[in-house]
From TrEMBL:
[2Fe-2S] cluster binds at residues 82, 87, 123, 127. It catalyses: a quinone + NADH + 5 H(+)(in) = a quinol + NAD(+) + 4 H(+)(out). GO terms for molecular function: 2 iron, 2 sulfur cluster binding; metal ion binding; NADH dehydrogenase activity. It comes from Saezia sanguinis. Its cofactor is [2Fe-2S] cluster. Its EC number is 1.6.5.11. This is NADH-quinone oxidoreductase subunit 2. Binds 1 [2Fe-2S] cluster. Keywords: 2Fe-2S, Iron, Iron-sulfur, Metal-binding, Oxidoreductase. It is an enzyme of class 1 (oxidoreductase). InterPro entries: NuoE-like, NuoE_dom, NuoE_N, Thioredoxin-like_sf. The gene is nqo2. Pfam families: 2Fe-2S_thioredx. PANTHER family: NADH DEHYDROGENASE [UBIQUINONE] FLAVOPROTEIN 2, MITOCHONDRIAL, NADH DEHYDROGENASE UBIQUINONE FLAVOPROTEIN 2, MITOCHONDRIAL. Belongs to the complex I 24 kDa subunit family.
Length: 163
């Protein structure tokens, strides 16, 4: 499951830490697996644990603690909307509801075409910019009112159609 090329990427991460501290690279290794596979399966967790010479449960604890790690397959575009208290008070919950209605999914589900997964997430550290969302764990979007949400979804769909 984990290729030699992936293991080479792991090795580059390990170079950043003392030899007796391999487990320090667990988050980086999990991120690499997710970049390549789209999610982190239990089998991949076990292989990361073996590679880093640490208990599989310790890797599982990391994967399940941080919401940036996908524990099941997700859409091409993972849309994480902050629904922490500050964002809830300023439209975060409504943004999630709008996305779910527009995409015809419930929170945590993926659209039938496999393009979009809508999730709620914890604080993104941009409380003054609410509602905020993170697209594919990388791109922060601020002030996401219904019009901006529609523009984002329509733009991503158009880009897919153009391919």
């Amino acid at each position: 499951m984990i290729s030699e090329a992936t293991k080479q990427r792991f090795a580059r991460e390990l170079e950043k830490y003392p030899a007796d501290q391999k487990q320090s690279a667990v988050m980086a290794c999990l991120a690499i697996v997710q970049q390549e596979q789209g999610w982190i399966s239990p089998e991949a967790e076990a292989q990361v644990a073996e590679y880093l010479e640490m208990p599989a449960i310790a890797v599982r604890e990391v994967t399940s603690f941080y919401n940036m790690y996908n524990q099941k397959p997700v859409g091409k575009y993972k849309l994480n909307v902050c629904t922490n208290l500050s964002c809830q008070l300023r439209g975060g919950k409504e943004a999630v509801e709008h996305l779910c209605k527009k995409l015809d999914v419930n929170v945590g589900e993926t659209t039938a075409d496999g393009l979009f997964t809508v999730q709620e997430c914890e604080c993104l550290g941009a409380c003054a910019d609410t509602p905020v969302m993170l697209v594919n764990d990388r791109n922060m979007c601020s002030f996401m009112d219904n019009d901006k949400l529609d523009q984002l979804i329509d733009g991503l769909k158009s880009a897919e159609d153009a391919q």
